[in-house]
Design goal:
heterodimer; A: alpha/beta; Rossmann fold; six-stranded mixed beta sheet; 8 helices; 32% helix; B: 558 residues; alpha+beta; 18 helices; 17 strands
C-alpha cells in the first residue's frame, strides 16, 4: 500500500502524533503500520521517533508524518512540541489496564484544550490479542481459552466507545501483535481529515520531487498551508 | 577407554575434537611451555571446570519468575557481578539482576551498612566478603553499589558506578535530581527513571563483559585513510546546520567523523552514554525511523538538556552477505534517501588494500566465519546534537543533504566497507621497514591508547576472543580481566610503573606506558619476554605510522 505507482492522485502531508501511557503499544502500532512488523518485548521509546508512511485513499494519497512519542511521565512536557500543528492524534490505551484509559482521557482533554481546533483524534484500545474477542486473536490460531479464561480485558468496549462518542473521537480496538484493525485506524483518520486542512507540504525544502510534480498536476489551493497555521490555537 | 592426549590441535579444531578428553595434566602444561609453537592464551578453557569464571556464560541470563524464591535467590547469588542503586532513604532504584521484590531485603542490609558508616562521618568505600569485592559510592541522595567477583580494582569499579550515575544524570539532569530529593527525600526514583532500566543494564553488561573503551576512558575510531577522513569531515562541515552543536558519524560503535565548535570538545564519558544508547541497547534502532531525543551530557553540562537527532542508514538491499534479509522493506521509513546504487566492489577492495600496508586478509573468509549477530557492528548512524529543542527539521534537512553527498561521493560505501573489514588482524600488523617483517608477531591481542587523542585501537578479537560459544565468551572475559589487572597495576597510586611484564599459567602479558601512549599486550604463556617486547615495539611503530588513520586528530572544527 505504500506504493501507488504513478497514479496522478493529489498527495498531502498529515502530521500525526501518538500519545498515551508508557507500554500501551504506541510504537508497536506504528511499527505494524509502517513496516508491517511486530517485536515482542520492545524496549521503551526514548524521546520521540519520526516516521512516515503513505496511505492511499480512492481520491487522494495521504502521507502521514508520524511522531511516535515516549509515554514516560518525564517526556510529558515535550508533548506540545509534537502535537502543535498536528492534524491528527492517536491516543492509545491498553485495554488490559484501566489506568491507561484514565491517562488517555487526560491526553484527549489536553489536545482539545491546546492542539489545533480541527485536530482529528482517534482513541485506540490496543492489545486486543490478550482478550477473548475473536477478532483480535484471529489470524495465527493462537486463540485464548474459552469462558473468560485467559481474558485479560479490563476495559469494556462499551465504556471506551461511550466516552469516545461523547468527545467526538474515532474509536478502535486493535492488536499491533496480530495486525488487527491497525491499518483501519490510519485509514479512518486519513478519511476524517477535512479537505480544507490538507496542505501539500510541511514546509520549504521538505517536499520531494515526486510530491512536487503531483502538486503541479493538481490545482491545490496554495493558501492552505497558511490556513492550517492560522487555525492553530496557540 | 584410556586416551592420552599427546597432540593438541589448535583453534577451532581444539574445541571440536579435543573437548573434555583433553583435560591437561600439570606435566603437559610444563612440557608445553617448552614448545616452539605459538600457544594461544587461555587455551585450556573447558566448560564445567571449577574456575574463576565457571558459569560466566549464564551471567546475563534472566532470573525466571516461575520458580520458587529459593531457586531464584540461588540464581541471584550465582551472578558474578551486581550493580545496585538505592536512595539514601533506602528506596531501591535499580538492580541489574533480580526484580526488586526478590532482593528488597538485600537492599535493606546494604542501606543499613552504608548509613551506619555515613552516620559515623566515615563513609564506607568498600569491603571484601569471600571472593566478592563490594565498592560503594555516594552521589548526593544516591548510593551506588558494585559487587564483583571478576577481580577489577576498586578504582575500576568506581568508574563503572560513576558511569551509571552519569546515565541517571543524562536522563534527569543534576538540578532535577536534587530537586526531587530536596522536596521529598523518600521519593521512589524508579518512576522518573522509568524506561531507562535497559540503558543502565546495557551499560552494566558492557562492564561485566569487559569494555576496553570504558577501561581506558577512550574511544575507538573506524580506520580510514587520512585524506578520506578529511574529505568526510569537509562534507560534514559543508552541510552543517546553524543550530548544530556536535555532529557525529558513527559506524558499528566506532567514530568515523566528528564536527564540533572550536571551544567545545566532546568528553569520552558523554560519548560512552550515546554509544551505549545507540549500539548496545535496542531502544533506538528497534522502532526504525528517525529519533529526537532529549538528553543531558553531564560532562558537557550537567544542568540542562541537549537534543539529539539520530538516524541509522538502511542496509543496502544489494548486499549479498545474507544480512539484508533480516530487515526487509525498511527503506520507505526514510523516503527522502534514494535507493543505494550497487556498490563498486572493486573500488572498495582497492581502497582497502591501500589502507593497510600488509596484504589484507581475504574478506570472504572473515565475513563467513563471523556470527550473524555481529551485523550490528556494521550499522552506520548520523548523530546531530543541538541545544535547540525545535531544531529537529533543520537537523533532519542537514542529515538528508549530508547522506546524499556521502552517498554520491562514494564515501558511504567506503565507510561501509571499512566497517565490514573490521579491526585489523594482528597478523597484519608489522612494519615494512623492519627486516623481519614477515616473521609472525607473537602477540595474541593488544590495546593501544593514544593519550593525547583519548582514543584507542585494538586488533580484531577473532577468532579466539569473539563468538557466542561459552568458551569464547569466557576467553574474551579472561582477556579483559588481564587488561584490567595490567591497567590497575600500572595506575595504582604511587606505583610509577613504566613497563610491566607478567607471566601466568595460561597467559603472558606486557604493559608499557609513556607520555604518548599506553600499551597492553597479551600472548600465550610460553611467549618469551624478548618476543613480547619485540611485538610491543612493532605495535608501537605500527600505531605511530598509522596514527592518522587509526585516530581522529582534531576532527572538523567550526
Amino acid at each position: 500500500m505504500a506504493d501507488s505507482g504513478n497514479a496522478p492522485k493529489p498527495s498531502s502531508s498529515v502530521k500525526l502524533v501518538l500519545l498515551g501511557e508508557a507500554a500501551v503499544g504506541k510504537s508497536s502500532l506504528v511499527l505494524r503500520f509502517v513496516n508491517n512488523d511486530f517485536q515482542e518485548n520492545k524496549e521503551p521509546t526514548i524521546g520521540a521517533a519520526f516516521l512516515t508512511q503513505k496511505c492511499n485513499l480512492p481520491t487522494r494519497t495521504i502521507k502521514f508524518e508520524i511522531w511516535d512519542t515516549a509515554g514516560q511521565e518525564r517526556f510529558a512536557s515535550l508533548a506540545p512540541m509534537y502535537y502543535r500543528n498536528a492534524q491528527a492524534a492517536l491516543v492509545v490505551y491498553d485495554l488490559t489496564k484501566p489506568t491507561s484509559l484514565v491517562k488517555a482521557k487526560h491526553w484527549v482533554a489536553e489536545l482539545q484544550r491546546q492542539a489545533s481546533p480541527g485536530i482529528v483524534i482517534a482513541l485506540v484500545g490496543n492489545k486486543l490479542d490478550l482478550t477473548n474477542d475473536e477478532a483480535g486473536s484471529g489470524g495465527d490460531g493462537e486463540s485464548p481459552g474459552v469462558d473468560g479464561e485467559g481474558d485479560a480485558r479490563k476495559v469494556t468496549t462499551d465504556e471506551a466507545k461511550t466516552y469516545a462518542d461523547e468527545e467526538g473521537l474515532l474509536f478502535f480496538e486493535t492488536s499491533a501483535k496480530t495486525g488487527y484493525n491497525v491499518t483501519e485506524v490510519f485509514t479512518a483518520i486519513a478519511n476524517a481529515i477535512p479537505e480544507t486542512s490538507l496542505k501539500t507540504a510541511r514546509g520549504p525544502g521538505a517536499a520531494h520531487a515526486a510530491a512536487r510534480s503531483e502538486e503541479q498536476r493538481v490545482n491545490l489551493n496554495g493558501a492552505r498551508d497558511q490556513n492550517a497555521k492560522d487555525g492553530c490555537a496557540c | 577407554m584410556s586416551f592420552a592426549p599427546t597432540l593438541r590441535p589448535h583453534g577451532d579444531l581444539a574445541s571440536l575434537v579435543a573437548g573434555s578428553l583433553n583435560r591437561k595434566s600439570r606435566a603437559w602444561n610444563l612440557l608445553r611451555s617448552q614448545s616452539e609453537t605459538v600457544i594461544q592464551p587461555f587455551e585450556g578453557i573447558e566448560l564445567g571446570m571449577s574456575g574463576d569464571l565457571a558459569g560466566f556464560e549464564r551471567e546475563f541470563d534472566e532470573i525466571p519468575d516461575n520458580t520458587t524464591d529459593d531457586v531464584r535467590l540461588a540464581l541471584w547469588h550465582s551472578k558474578m557481578k551486581h550493580y545496585m542503586i538505592l536512595s539514601s532513604a533506602g528506596k531501591p532504584i535499580y538492580s541489574r539482576h533480580g526484580d526488586l521484590s526478590l532482593i528488597n531485603s538485600s537492599m535493606g542490609v546494604v542501606q543499613t551498612i552504608i548509613s551506619f558508616y555515613e552516620g559515623q562521618k566515615d563513609p564506607l568505600l568498600g569491603f571484601t566478603a569471600g571472593n566478592a569485592r563490594f565498592v560503594i559510592t555516594t552521589e548526593g541522595p544516591l548510593y551506588f553499589v558494585a559487587i564483583s567477583r571478576l577481580g577489577e580494582s576498586d578504582a575500576q569499579l568506581r568508574s563503572q558506578l560513576d558511569a551509571l550515575y552519569m546515565q541517571i544524570l543524562s536522563t534527569l539532569t543534576l538540578p532535577t535530581l536534587k530537586n526531587i530529593f530536596v522536596h521529598r527525600p523518600s521519593t521512589d526514583l524508579r518512576k522518573p527513571l522509568e524506561g531507562t532500566e535497559s540503558l543502565l543494564s546495557s551499560l552494566a553488561d558492557s562492564f561485566t563483559k569487559g569494555s576496553p573503551s570504558a577501561l581506558l576512558g577512550a574511544l575507538e575510531c573506524l580506520k580510514l585513510r587520512k585524506s578520506q577522513r578529511h574529505s568526510i569531515n569537509n562534507i560534514f562541515l559543508k552541510n552543517r546546520a546553524d543550530k548544530l552543536l556536535y555532529g557525529l558519524i558513527v559506524a558499528g560503535g566506532k567514530l568515523v567523523s566528528v564536527i564540533r565548535p572550536r571551544k567545545h570538545s566532546l568528553h569520552p564519558s558523554d560519548l560512552q552514554l550515546i554509544f551505549n544508547m545507540l549500539f548496545e541497547s535496542g531502544s533506538i534502532k528497534a522502532g526504525g525511523g528517525e529519533s529526537w531525543i532529549p538528553l543531558c551530557l553531564p560532562a558537557f553540562n550537567n544542568r540542562g538538556y541537549l537534543y539529539m537527532y539520530v538516524s541509522f542508514f538502511d542496509k543496502p538491499d544489494d548486499e549479498n552477505d545474507g544480512d539484508s534479509s533480516h530487515h526487509p522493506a525498511r527503506s520507505h521509513a526514510t523516503p527522502s534517501i534514494p535507493e543505494e546504487p550497487p556498490e563498486g566492489e572493486e573500488e572498495s577492495s582497492e581502497t582497502r588494500s591501500n589502507s593497510t600496508s600488509a596484504p589484507p586478509p581475504p574478506p570472504s573468509s572473515s565475513s563467513s566465519s563471523r556470527p550473524s549477530p555481529q551485523s550490528a557492528d556494521e550499522e552506520i548512524a548520523i548523530i546531530l546534537i543541538s541545544a535547540d529543542k525545535e531544531s529537529f527539521f533543520s537537523l533532519k534537512e542537514m542529515r538528508d543533504k549530508l547522506a546524499l553527498s556521502l552517498q554520491k561521493s562514494g564515501y558511504l560505501s567506503l565507510i561501509r566497507s571499512a566497517c565490514r573489514q573490521g579491526r585489523p588482524k594482528i597478523s597484519s600488523i608489522s612494519t615494512s621497514s623492519s627486516s623481519t617483517a614477515h616473521q609472525e608477531i607473537q602477540l595474541s591481542h593488544f590495546l593501544y591508547k593514544s593519550r593525547a587523542n583519548v582514543q584507542f585501537c585494538m586488533p580484531s578479537l577473532e577468532p579466539h576472543f569473539s563468538g557466542w560459544e561459552p568458551e569464547r565468551q569466557i576467553a574474551r572475559r579472561k582477556l579483559m580481566s588481564v587488561y584490567h589487572q595490567l591497567h590497575a597495576s600500572m595506575h595504582a597510586k604511587h606505583s610509577h610503573l613504566k613497563v610491566l611484564h607478567s607471566v601466568g599459567e595460561d597467559v603472558a602479558s606486557l604493559a608499557w606506558i609513556t607520555p604518548v601512549f599506553e600499551l597492553y599486550c597479551v600472548a600465550g604463556p610460553n611467549a618469551s619476554r624478548a618476543a613480547m617486547t619485540q611485538g610491543a615495539n612493532r605495535v608501537v611503530q605500527w600505531a605511530k605510522k598509522e596514527e592518522e588513520r587509526l585516530f581522529i586528530i582534531g576532527g572538523g572544527v567550526f
